[in-house]
Design goal:
Layout lengths: L12 H8 L2 E5 L13 H20 L9 E4 L3 H11 L9 E4 L9 E7 L5 H7 L9 H7 L2 E9 L1 H4 L3 H10 L1 E3 L1
Parallel strand pairs: 1-5, 1-6, 2-3, 2-4, 4-5
Helix pairs in contact: 1-2, 2-3
């Protein structure tokens, strides 16, 4: 089901896509310059681009971004710092965003959830997945269920293909690169 957003004729392709799709997977390169492997500058830049596009969409549709509009979930505190650092130079009010790990995000829903999986290596994929006895990825389930209207997942498609749950998620969401 499409959102109640309208895109005008001059809207950029990403804005049009965000207006048409409630869920989206965006592939990002792994960050080979990340010393700890717990940051991904490519994903942080995509997050920035998404927020800027959502700001424009909200403005064009006479909606106001509030502290309950956009939430960002990522597995590592280092990636939280990377995202904040990437956003500080943009015209984005950081007080309107909630950026946290999935463990600390339980109970906090937002209209738009952006998930930065911060996948730089195959080893990280093993720690990213947290299966319950029923075979459900608990962390992914919590992250996905925080979104009220819109959900965008960002990660390295090549690495995530190695996990059945993420492979299926990418097939259902559809993939794109920015």
């Amino acid at each position: 089901q499409a959102l109640n957003f309208q895109s005008n004729g001059s809207t950029l392709p990403l804005q049009q896509l965000l207006c048409q799709k409630r869920t989206l997977f965006i592939s990002a390169a792994s960050d080979q310059l990340s010393l700890t492997r717990k940051t991904n500058q490519h994903e942080a830049l995509i997050i920035r681009q998404l927020i800027e596009n959502f700001q424009k969409i909200y403005q064009e549709n006479n909606r106001v971004l509030t502290s309950h509009s956009i939430g960002i979930i990522t597995p590592y505190r280092a990636q939280i710092a990377q995202i904040r650092d990437t956003l500080k130079d943009a015209e984005i009010d950081l007080d309107l965003l909630t950026i946290d790990t999935v463990e600390r995000y339980q109970g906090g829903a937002r209209d738009i959830i952006l998930i930065s999986l911060c996948t730089n290596s195959l080893n990280q994929l093993q720690s990213l997945v947290s299966l319950s006895d029923d075979g459900i990825d608990r962390k992914l389930n919590v992250a996905l269920t925080r979104a009220r209207e819109h959900l965008v997942v960002i990660g390295n498609e090549e690495l995530l293909q190695n996990d059945m749950t993420y492979r299926e998620l990418m097939e259902v969401f559809g993939r794109m690169e920015i």
